[in-house]
Amino acid sequence: MSEPADTRPSSQVLAQELPASVREAGLTNWIREPLDGAVDRRRRVIVPPAAATAGTPLRSCQGALLAEVRRPDTVVMMGDNPELPTMPERPALRDFFELRFGKIAYSHLLQSARLAREHGLSEKVIMACLLHDIAIAGLLSANHGYWGAQMVAPYVDEEVAWAIEKHEALRYFPDESVGYTYPHAYIDYFGPDYRPPEYLHREHEAARQHRWYMTSRLITINDIYSFDPDVVVEFDQFEDVVGRNFRQPREGLGFDGSPVAHMWRTMIWPNNFL
Predict the structure, then answer these.
(1) Confidence class of residue 3 from pLDDT cuts 50, 70 and 90?
(2) Are residues 20 and 72 in the same domain?
(3) Which end of the chain is more exposed for a tag (fewer CB within 10 A), N or C?
(4) Is residue 96 within 8 Å of residue 106, measured between CB atoms?
(5) In Å, what is the CA distance from 140 to each residue of 34, 49, 55, 107, 205?
(6) Domain boundary among 49, 76, 103
(7) pLDDT-derived band of residue 41, with 50, 70 and 90 as boundaries?
(8) pLDDT (average), residues 220-237
(9) Looking at residue 9, what is its pLDDT?
(10) 74 φ, ψ to 5°?
(11) Could you write out the DSSP letters of every residue in 90-103?
């Protein structure tokens, strides 16, 4: 199912209703009025995490936002954010794709898996392509290969998790023997003079010597570096592959007590203060 049109009413607080300290810091989008029909009718403040604000003009925003919490009938955001679709009690992988990932991330992952399938590759590679940017889609972009590999490691074959982790480094380094060149999109993103840090050079060299190198390299070959909005792929098309290659916990992702359950819960409740 493709991402549904957003028909929820806006709950953004009118700027003139907020103190100057909040307006001047550009924080008005982080304070939400209760939607129509909300039970407690309280205003909720979203305090963005440090990873989202470090190095930006919002890096000192917490003081102004927490001061706003002291107002009557105002609390920090905890639990379900009414502006997000409600997740089921026992979330499956599909639920994160359809209820948490944005349109571009959703399409990117499915297009990558589709390309791998069209190339006649194994289900391990298709599964790795389907999940390779899952951290970007729902958690963090920086070091996304490592975050993504950890998130899925308890639920997929070890080779799939390894390939997802190592694609973080491999995507920067050409391999002419298999026709992989440095992506043109990266020149646009990072500039023509960008050089990956030394740890990625070391990761690349080590991965080249590993028995699963080609599995990870095939992720980079079947990646979609320029999003094509005209190609429509639905999760249904990979339900069979997921069923055979992803160990869905009966308690639901985030509630199975695995070492990475907290990552999935963070995607369920991404705006929690604590």
Answers:
(1) very low
(2) yes
(3) C
(4) no
(5) 28, 11, 15, 18, 25
(6) 76
(7) confident
(8) 88
(9) 45
(10) -130, 135
(11) S--HHHHHHHTS-H
